[in-house]
Design goal:
With about 475 residues, the chain is mainly β. The chain has three domains: about 200 residues, Jelly Rolls; about 160 residues, Sandwich (Jelly Rolls); about 80 residues, Immunoglobulin-like (Sandwich), CATH 2.60.40. Strands 2, 7, 8, 10, 11 and 13 form a six-stranded antiparallel sheet that branches. A five-stranded antiparallel sheet has the order 3-4-14-9-12. A hairpin with a 4-residue loop joins strand 19 and strand 20. The chain starts with a helix and ends with a strand.
Length: about 475
């Protein structure tokens, strides 16, 4: 777990995606048959350059994004923003100050060794804006090399506040030869004096170029010198579920949670495979309806859940490597009392769809449930999961005990009115299971809700009365 704790440094921003997802009736699991999948952004990289965001996120610091494209460019449609940020390191329990940087890498993308360039140059130019905190300085670094030997090295400081695009001209020192490679780097704080770095320092850049003051030939253009070309990559992930693929993919271009067309119900199931990349980097092959808390080195969270069912059931197939086993873990908890009721079930070799069933007992009502599946620890072990359900107990009561309510108009344009007999809370979810609106209801049995800012589509209106839930569909059409 030491490597895991080191690599998975702050994945908390994924809470934005996960913690607002609720089950439709709060007695079921969102996306329980894994029919719904979405494209998860895993890589937004600058072509021909390396950036701080790429480096930090490939090391597991997924919440660090301090080098990114911006639209208010000097020329073209894009420029780049670099910023020094404060980041909590869960491994050390301390805050780190991380400067933003962009580095012109080698032509094959390997390392910061410079890129081929064979024109005589003695001036570097770019357009910039900045807001450098007092006591800090951004830096521009230019190195010219020939046959592996650096013959010109220039470090140019940038300070102060520049609110409009301004031309920066940097004379290069001791230009005694014609280069065969050039290194270009810019950082929002001085990497050679890390003690002076101040969170909040930033610099924006556009239109890099070289000049030769004494010559008549215009030097060659720097590839992607105006930061117009970015590569955006996504992977498909199950809606309402979290995996470590967002950290794994930028490093390995692979994912261990994938959509399978081998299904027990519907069209798809969730496949969890223990891959070489999982084992090499130290990432467990898990999928969960919660999220990873780096300070605890543990999966926590889950989704709202107020029922007390008698069983937790599902269907699975498992192809183990050697004598491997998979398992399913479930934790019901109550945030008020702090009580946790936990269950775990081992999943053995099963070449066809096989049911599992966990008997459940409660000493008090939960308000949340955390579920996760582990696909095994041996290379090649593969788990398929489908048709997760809670059954028995008060599930059926919670799902249907409120009298029917009325929505009008439906479809709705700018407003919908809900007519009901009784309710404590009204909640509105989109089709991804994300909570859109929530209202506490007093004595009135009539509630009008503005839908002006809702996107066109289908929503689920959920009424809750003393833990009992009823749901209807609403269509919004503007």
């Amino acid at each position: 777990m030491e490597k895991l704790a080191t690599m998975k440094k702050s994945i908390l921003f994924i809470v934005i995606t996960i913690c607002n997802i609720a089950a439709w009736g709060q007695a079921s699991v969102a996306n329980n048959s894994f029919e719904n999948w979405y494209d998860l952004g895993v890589k937004d990289s600058l072509d021909y350059w390396s950036t701080s965001t790429q480096q930090y996120q490939s090391n597991g610091w997924l919440d660090v994004n301090n080098s990114y494209e911006i639209p208010n460019a000097y020329s073209g449609s894009k420029a780049i923003h670099l910023e020094t940020v404060l980041h909590f390191d869960a491994g050390s329990g301390q805050n780190d100050t991380l400067f933003g940087f962009v580095v012109k890498q080698s032509a094959d993308g390997n390392g910061f060794t410079g890129f081929p360039y064979a024109d005589t140059v003695n001036i570097f130019k770019c357009w910039y804006k900045c807001g450098i905190v007092t006591g800090d300085q951004a830096v521009v670094i230019i190195e010219l090399s020939n046959s592996g030997t650096v013959f010109s090295s220039t470090t140019f400081p940038v300070t102060g506040n520049v609110g409009t695009w301004t031309l920066l001209s940097v004379p290069l020192s001791t230009v005694t030869d014609v280069p065969d490679s050039v290194f270009i780097g810019v950082a929002s704080s001085d990497p050679f004096n890390p003690g002076i770095a101040k969170p909040g320092s930033w610099i924006e850049l556009d239109e890099f170029s070289f000049e030769f003051a004494s010559g008549t030939v215009v030097p060659s253009a720097i590839p992607n010198n105006s930061f117009e070309n970015w590569t955006y990559e996504t992977i498909e992930q199950p809606t309402a579920w979290f995996s470590f693929d967002q950290m794994l993919y930028p490093q390995t271009q692979s994912a261990y949670v994938t959509k399978s067309s081998t299904a027990s119900v519907g069209s798809y199931s969730m496949q969890i495979e223990t891959t070489f990349e999982n084992l090499f980097i130290g990432i467990p092959s898990i999928a969960t309806n919660g999220y990873f808390e780096p300070a605890l080195d543990s999966v926590v969270g889950g989704t709202p859940f107020i029922a007390q069912p008698a069983q937790f059931t599902g269907m699975y197939q498992f192809s183990p490597s050697l004598t491997d086993t998979a398992w399913v873990y479930i934790d019901f908890w109550n945030a008020t009392s702090g009580l946790h009721t936990m269950y775990i079930d081992t999943l053995l070799d099963a070449s066809s769809w096989t049911p599992w069933s966990i008997d459940l007992t409660f000493t008090e009502a939960p308000d949340s449930v955390l579920i996760y599946f582990w696909g095994g620890q041996n290379l090649g072990s593969t788990l398929l999961v489908d048709d997760i359900q809670f059954t028995g107990g008060d599930v059926s009561v919670n799902e249907s005990s409120i009298s029917d309510f009325t929505l009008y108009p439906n479809p709705a344009n700018n407003e919908v009115t809900i007519l009901f007999e009784k309710a404590d809370v009204i909640r509105i979810f989109n089709t991804a299971g994300v909570l859109v609106d929530s209202f506490n209801v007093n004595e009135s049995n009539l509630k009008s809700i503005s839908t002006i800012n809702y996107e066109n589509g289908i929503y689920l209106i959920q009424l809750i009365d003393k833990g009992k839930v009823s749901v209807q569909k609403l269509v919004v059409e503007h």
